[in-house]
Design goal:
alpha/beta; binds N-succinyl methionine; TIM Barrel; Enolase-like, domain 1; 2 domains; 377 residues; seven-stranded parallel β-sheet; binds magnesium ion
Length: 377
Amino acid sequence: MPILRSSHAVDLEGFELRVLRIPLVSPFTTSFGTEEVREVIVVRALTAGGDGWGEIVTSASPLYSSEYTQGAWDVALRYLAPALLERRMVTAEDVAGILRPFVGHRMAKAGLELAVLDAALRLEGRPLGEYLGAVRERVPSGVSIGIQRDAASLVAAVGGYLDEGYARIKIKIKPGRDIADTAAVRDAFGAIPLQVDANSAYTLDDIDTLAELDRFDLLLIEQPLQEDDIVDHATLSRRLRTPVCLDESIVSHKAAVDALALSAASVINIKAGRVGGYLEAVRIHDLCRDAGVPVWCGGMLETGIGRAANAALAALPGFTLTGDVSGSDRFYARDIVTEPAVLEDGHVRVPTGPGLGVQIDPVALDDFTVARETVRR
Ligand code: SMG
Ligand code: MG
């Protein structure tokens, strides 16, 4: 039986959206490109009972998915926020239904839903973790490491994060930077918990290369093929010993149902932004838990807002694998919340205060803001 979550309605007065550009502590390279600055949209729901905060996890360019900052900015200001404001009294559980007529744009929808949910829970004095169904006070913390200049640099980077205490290592791979990089990490560190993420860089023509990864006893290979290659992922899954995990392909609960029905994956990465919100993320968690499929919480280089929410989500019982829920300092020298997530003994704490359980640092928020717009009722 699904647990029915309910939060109080908030009296919506407006939404303030900001584009932030926050420098990364080091460049982050995936199979689709390199980022040196995190460009992200912060959402503030303005309600009669106080503010709520959310984050739209798009990147500047549509490379991870079709969504990107300016597209999310436009659709949120032009269509999504006005639709919510028109309803005025809104619960977080209403948001997805109100926004359903607008096709796609899940990251934008997720950011607005989180802001409404945070406003409601702050008003109720209820922590997000409790609302979502968290069963842990802290979650094990994995780190996602970008493609480095060469294998030696990768080994140095992995060693640094292991020294910090990270519980699991994920390395990014792409054609030509796969077997040798993975071998270098295994040779240097032995049987550490290790997985790889291809961000859709391969096709079935690469099946022999991907099968070579089997000898490294990886926890999983994440999203080797394209977003819509569900059947090809099923074909690949039958051929590999390494478990196939889907990230980009799982854009909704329905996509997860279909992927499991076709045996396209034996593990799922759940990202609230990618699936349209934390409530949809919980539905996918519930589905996978009932199906005996392990899940873990993915990351989109979140600020302290999304990072707090991800820690709460990752504390649900079905999240049996270590997620990309790292300390804030893995990406940022300065965050926009007053108590950024820190790594303690390989774990990150689930905030216990009302709503997200973190406070915005207004000076940092202003310092990183490059655009700002408010829509009112
Ligand atoms: O937040 O720790 C994090 C980043 C984790 O590797 C990460 N995310 O495909 O899983 C993924 C990537 C997508 C990031 S692209 C903006
Ligand atoms: Mg991924």
